[in-house]
Amino acid sequence: MSGLAGHIRTESARLAALCTACGGCVTACPMTPYAAGVDAAEPGTVAAGMRDVLRDGPGSPAALAWIAACTRSGICTPACPEGLDAAFMLRLAQWRAKGALGTAPLIPVKEDTQYSPKVKAFARLTLTEEEQARWL
Fold first, then answer.
1. Which domain holds residue 42?
2. d(CA 116, CA 67)
3. How far apart are CA 34 and CA 57, in angstroms?
4. pLDDT tens digit string along 1-56?
5. 101 in the Ramachandran plot: left (φ > 0), alpha (ψ -120 to 50) or beta?
6. Which of 1, 69, 73, 131 has the fewest beta carbons under 10 Å from its own?
7. Half-sphere exposure for 17 (CA within 13 Å, toward CB)
């Protein structure tokens, strides 16, 4: 395994092996009420579903809803009694669930139709007015 895909697989496997699926991250998450079915599910079950995604599994509907709802607040990380970087775990799970490793997406992938205008806006922040006039 090499490159970014290899790193995603390696880190996913490492963190999934260390995670006890206690649900502390799910309980701490501010997005739980906004993810369909997560607040009705047992936090440990949701965490186990996220861990399943890290292990190339399908996850559970509640886990996939939670993964999709993640806004990367980072509140989950200090809630982990194992001291794991739960926010990073969710990020990896989100990449995997969106099909970043060549598999079919498990959660919706939103297309950013404003990508080019955003790049131009950020680029303008570093250009002088003269450079902007030539570029635009």
1. 3-109
2. 26
3. 24
4. 568 899 999 999 999 999 999 999 999 999 999 999 999 999 999 999 999 999 99
5. alpha
6. 1
7. 6
103 DSSP 8-state letter: S
Token pair, residue 35, equals 């993810």
**pTM higher than 0.70, yes or no?**
yes
Cβ atoms of 92 and 54 closer than 8 Å: yes
Distances 124 to 112, 115, 120, 134 between C-alpha atoms, Å: 20, 14, 6, 11
Is 117 a member of any domain? no
Report which of 108, 106, 105, 72 is spatially closest to residue 90, judged by C-alpha positions. Answer: 72
User: Does residue 136 fall inside a structural domain?
Assistant: no
Structure tokens, 60: 């559970």
CB-neighbour burial class of residue 94 (10 A; exposed 0-12, middle 13-18, buried 19+)? buried
Residue 115 lies in a domain: no
Question: How far apart, in whole angstroms, are the C-alpha atoms of residue 70 and residue 73?
Answer: 8
Structural domain count of the chain: 1
Q: Is residue 95 a part of any domain in this protein? A: yes
Tokens of 18: 């260390």
Residue 62: closest CA among 84, 31, 24: 31
Q: Which two tokens stand for residue 74?
A: 């980072």
